[in-house]
Design a protein that fits this description.
By secondary structure, the chain is of the alpha+beta class. The chain contains 4 helices and 7 strands.
Amino acid sequence: MLIKCKECGKEISSKAEKCPHCGVKRNTGCLGTLLLILAALVAFTAYLSSGSSKPSKSATSSVTHQQNPLSQAQKENLKNLINEYIKAGIFTKIDASSDTPHAFIGRSFQVITIDDKRTALNLVKVLYASELVTIYDGFSGKRLGYFDGYNLNMD
C-alpha cells in the first residue's frame, strides 16, 4: 500500500522505514499507541475521582457514560490529551462549535487499533458531553461517519 510522506508529500511504501525521496523517517505508531493508553488511564482516573461511588464494568463504558460533570481541571487534562493526539497525527483538529463535536482525523488514526480509536473518540465525546462525535477526514474535510460511544460507523 502506498502512503504519502508527511514531509515531502510524495508516495512511498507503507512498509518503508524512511522516505526514499527526502529521507525523513516514518513514525511507526508506537508513540500514538502509548499516548492513547495514557489517555485512557487519565480519563478513567478522572471519572473515578469525579465522585462516582461505583465504577462501570469497563474503562470504555466508564468514559462513555460519565454522569457527573467534569471539573475544570479534568477538562484541561482532556484538552491537553487531545492536543497530544493532534501532535501525534491522530487528529488534525477538533471542532466543537456545534452541538455534536467534529473530530478531523489524521493519517495516524488509520494505523491505530479499533480500541485505541474508540478511546481517542471517547475522550472527545466526554470532554464535550455529547452523545455522538462526527468524524471527518482531516485533509479533505469529507464526512466519514460518526462514533456513538462504542460503534465506529463509517459512511
